[in-house]
Amino acid sequence: MYCFIVNKVSGNGRSLKVWYQIEKKLQERNVYYCVHFTQKPKHATLLVQELIKKEKVTVIVAVGGDGTIHEVINGLVGTNIPLGIIPAGSGNDVSRGLGIPLKYDKALGRILSGKPKVIDIGFVNSTYFCTVAGIGFDGEVAQKANVSIYKKLLNLVRMGQISYIISAINVLFHYKPKDISIMIDKKLYKIPKVWLIAVANLPFYGGGLVICPKAESNDGLFDICIVQGMSKLDFLRIFPLVFKGNHTASPAIKIIRGKELEIYSPTPLLVHGDGEVIGQTPARIRIEPCALYVI
After folding, report:
1. Of 282, 185, 200, 285, which is closest to residue 242 (Cα–Cα)?
2. Tell me, what's the pLDDT at 284?
3. CB 54 within 8 A of CB 61
4. Contacts of 153 (CB under 8 A, 6+ apart)
């Protein structure tokens, strides 16, 4: 059975409209399915855990954005049940990174006829993530974007990804870079004036920003982007380059590859995973190789 988990508020209601179209196609094809709608934060994780226990599940399909997928994988990692994705959120970075069509009908066709592949998953403190875990500036931007009114308004015209850019500019004016210590595969780095650390399993975050262009979800390694030692003016100048992944040439940006890392800071820094704020530093992050099946 195909089990669909729909977040009705993803994309400011777009996911519900998408679900109605999907349901028609499932009925036309006589596909055996069930559907559950999330009612509160982290509900998708609970739904996945319940479905695995009670139903003979073929595929669990997340209909929504990266936040919905984030919750679903936290119930699914460690099982052999594949994840299907119908992108209907504001960012859809998981779909971009995995090459999943952004049009719902093509994404559904892939789910119904495709073959599962296995990918790596990240784990930070006590939470799994699929795309990127961001620390510092990134964490504050994620928090601001998720509670903003403009994200909802932009979602109405399918421009929700712009909310990350607006939030980034707002946070830029008050954010102060921090000195951090980071241990990567048991090698210690002490880095002053760090703006952000992005620990990437996939290249994209923030609605299509190519933070780590060479990140791959099946190589057993993170690409870790560290931005440090630049002025706010330099930050503004380099930021547009992230849309094409051309920022990595800057001497203020380092890309280090690794499997495990620990991040410490004198004061707590916000941490997000897949755009969802999930805690603060100190943060312990590791790759979980071949931990999730995706169709």
Report:
1. 200
2. 97
3. no
4. none
Neighbours of 70 (CB within 10 A): 26
- 225 pLDDT band, cuts 50/70/90, is very high
Q: Of 216, 184, 181, which Cα lies nearest the Cα of 200?
A: 216
Tokens of 219: 């190589």
Q: How far apart are CA 156 and CA 160, in angstroms?
A: 8
Q: Residue 223 corresponds to which amino acid? A: D
Average pLDDT, the chain: 92
Q: Is 13 exposed, middle or buried (0-12, 13-18, 19+ CB in 10 A)?
A: middle
Alpha-carbon distance 93 to 98, whole Å?
A: 9
* Sign of the C-alpha dihedral computed for residues 240, 237, 285 and 219 taken in this order: positive
**C-alpha–C-alpha distance, residues 64 and 7, integer Å:** 6
Enter the pTM of the model: 0.92
Q: Strand, coil or helix: what is 87?
A: strand
Q: What is the pLDDT of residue 158?
A: 59
pLDDT for 286 equals 98
Q: Tens of pLDDT along 88-104?
A: 987 899 999 999 999 99
The alpha-helical segments, DSSP class H, found in the chain are: 14-28, 43-54, 66-76, 93-98, 104-113, 137-147, 149-156, 162-172, 232-238
Q: Would you mind telling me the total number of residues written for the chain in this entry?
A: 295
CA atoms lying within 13 Å on the CB side of residue 274: 25
pLDDT beyond 60 at 195: yes
Tokens at 49, concatenated: 């855990």
pLDDT value at residue 196: 96
Q: What gap in Å lies between CA 285 and CA 265, rounded to an integer?
A: 15
Tell me which residue of 188, 184, 206 sits closest to 137, measured CA to CA: 206
Are 44 and 14 contacting, i.e. CB atoms less than 8 angstroms apart?
Answer: no
